[in-house]
Amino acid sequence: MTWVEAIVLGIVQGLTEFLPVSSSGHLRITSAIFFDRDAGASFTAVTQLGTEAAVLIYFAKDIWRITRTWLVGLRDRSVRSSLDYRMGWYVIVGSIPIGLFGFLFKDQIRTAGRNLWVVSTTLIVFAFVLAFAEYWGRQTRTLVNFRMRDGIVMGFAQAMALVPGVSRSGGTLTAGLLLNLTREAAARYSFLLAIPAVVMSGIFSVGDVFEPAAPGTSVPSLAQMVVATIIAFGIGYAAIAWLLRYVAHHTLYVFVLYRVALGTLVLALLLTGTISAT
């Protein structure tokens, strides 16, 4: 991997991780168009540690309060009715689907799932699903009204993002809107839900990043991996604050249009033979 490639991909990861546009899909597309190769699923997973570090810092007070209340609630029944205690369980249970499917379909995710025909198609298809959710969702419920059913449904929606192009935040926002949550409530739970899955995925993928490259892939050095992750952290932190402000006052249709445009562009490049699907 070149330094330009590492820096560009770190920027792309930071910009797209929290937007409903698929960061893994963007890394795959950027690698194919500008560098004529694939940085690999492990590179994506490790750079996501940078963006999740941004989540941990940005929501540090919330995370500490939820964790502390959940631990206290394990032995003290008096706090079990609180939202923080329940939210601890919602995040734990909601994280099970992506952990299970990630384990069962690890090989497919790292190979067939990164085919650009798949990525471009899922970008477009799930754009229309997001548009439907934005149009249909009544947005009458906040986190105060959040229930275990919501956590499970959004957990399965997050698991679909194992396929590049779906988008983890896009899937969870879509599910949240279909459950009539406000955009801001869905986004906040989405951030919290991502922490266990992304952190564990990144940790388990660290060793894989530096394995010898298969044909058509690139391998970063340790220094390049660190720099890309730090860049993703810095840009990702700014993206969190921006997205929370944005979803509080705007619809998600701009992301729908962007997904359709990008997916269509990639399909055109594939059909003309400009880029390779694998």
From TrEMBL:
Annotated membrane topology: Multi-pass membrane protein
Listed transmembrane segments: 87-105, 117-136, 191-210, 222-244, 256-277
InterPro entries on file: UppP
Domain of life: Bacteria
GO biological process: cell wall organization; peptidoglycan biosynthetic process; regulation of cell shape; response to antibiotic
Location(s) in or outside the cell: Cell membrane
Enzyme Commission numbers on file: 3.6.1.27
Cellular component, GO annotation: plasma membrane
One Gene Ontology molecular-function label: undecaprenyl-diphosphatase activity
Keywords: Antibiotic resistance, Cell membrane, Cell shape, Cell wall biogenesis/degradation, Hydrolase, Membrane, Peptidoglycan synthesis, Transmembrane, Transmembrane helix
Catalytic activity reported: di-trans,octa-cis-undecaprenyl diphosphate + H2O = di-trans,octa-cis-undecaprenyl phosphate + phosphate + H(+)
HAMAP family from the UniProt entry: Undec_diphosphatase (MF_01006)
Additional notes on this entry: Bacitracin is thought to be involved in the inhibition of peptidoglycan synthesis by sequestering undecaprenyl diphosphate, thereby reducing the pool of lipid carrier available.
Function: Catalyzes the dephosphorylation of undecaprenyl diphosphate (UPP). Confers resistance to bacitracin.
Family listed: Belongs to the UppP family.
NCBIfam families: PRK00281.2-1, undec_PP_bacA
Protein name: Undecaprenyl-diphosphatase
Species: Micromonospora wenchangensis
Gene: uppP
